[in-house]
Specification:
By secondary structure, the protein is an alpha/beta fold. It is 23% helix and 37% strand. α1 runs parallel beside α2 and α6 crosses α7. The protein is globular and about 55 Å long. The protein starts with a strand and ends with a strand.
């Protein structure tokens, strides 16, 4: 195996072959971690601005302490780590459907795993975020029906481009309404998207939530030497 590239793990999953790779960036000398599903790149530690913004923008909208937060999709851990950087966070559940991703963090194969596992506020839940979002019991198997101050999701590529076709129901008005039942009054739903803002989806959010907006997150892409824009959608139910 080349010094500059290594496949750290490879596992079949119900939605395709999942692989964890590490490569050396020749310009900076830094190690870059990447997760692929089949031939598609799911995430890279070279591009984390919008994953970090998802946590920062979401938590900025909730002005109280002792926040209970759910992150849907563990990935490389950047959203979860940014949530835990906030002193006002009291607890974090990270819901991840792919067991391999949880293993990579718990065994230290990913650089953020140790910090997440050692933080007493953080707990991993191995499960289907979308199934849990549509259930009455919700996300915490130890406390059915528990409601949260923020639910932040980074799983699918966008509201119209899914890792699994079965996820589509979550983005319908009925699916979003079921998700809203798991939020505290005045809580925040945040959703990451790889695409530019979609006015039709923002309007769909406004049909379900009292407030909704789309925030652009623009960063420099060194591979193409240009600016790239992704989106964080934010929505809030009524109440305080």
């Amino acid at each position: 195996m080349s010094l500059y590239f290594e496949e750290l793990d490879y596992r079949p999953t119900p939605i395709g072959a999942l692989s964890l790779r590490r490569r050396r960036d020749l310009s900076s000398g830094a190690d870059i971690f990447e997760i692929k599903l089949g031939d598609d790149y799911l995430m890279s530690s070279q591009f984390t601005a919008s994953e970090i913004a998802l946590a920062r923008l979401g938590l900025a909208g909730v002005d109280r302490s002792g926040l209970d937060v759910v992150v849907g999709g563990l990935g490389l851990g950047y959203t979860a780590r940014t949530v835990l950087e906030h002193d006002k966070v009291g607890s974090l559940l990270v819901v991840e459907a792919l067991e391999a991703v949880v293993d990579w963090h718990e065994t230290g194969m990913l650089p953020l795993g140790e910090g997440l596992c050692e933080d007493a506020r953080c707990r991993f839940v191995h499960g289907d975020f979308f199934g849990l979002a549509g259930s009455a019991d919700g996300f915490d198997p130890n406390q059915p029906g528990r409601r949260f101050d923020a639910i932040l999701v980074d799983i699918d590529h966008s509201p119209d481009f899914f890792l699994d076709p079965s996820n589509a129901a979550f983005y319908t008005p009925a699916g979003l309404a079921r998700l809203a039942l798991h939020l505290q009054p005045g809580g925040v739903f945040g959703l990451w998207s790889n695409d530019l803002p979609d006015d039709a989806f923002t309007a769909r959010l406004k049909d379900v939530f009292a407030e909704a907006r789309a925030e652009r997150v623009t960063f420099h892409n060194p591979l193409q030497d240009n600016e790239f824009t992704q989106t964080v959608y934010l929505a809030r139910p009524g109440g305080k």
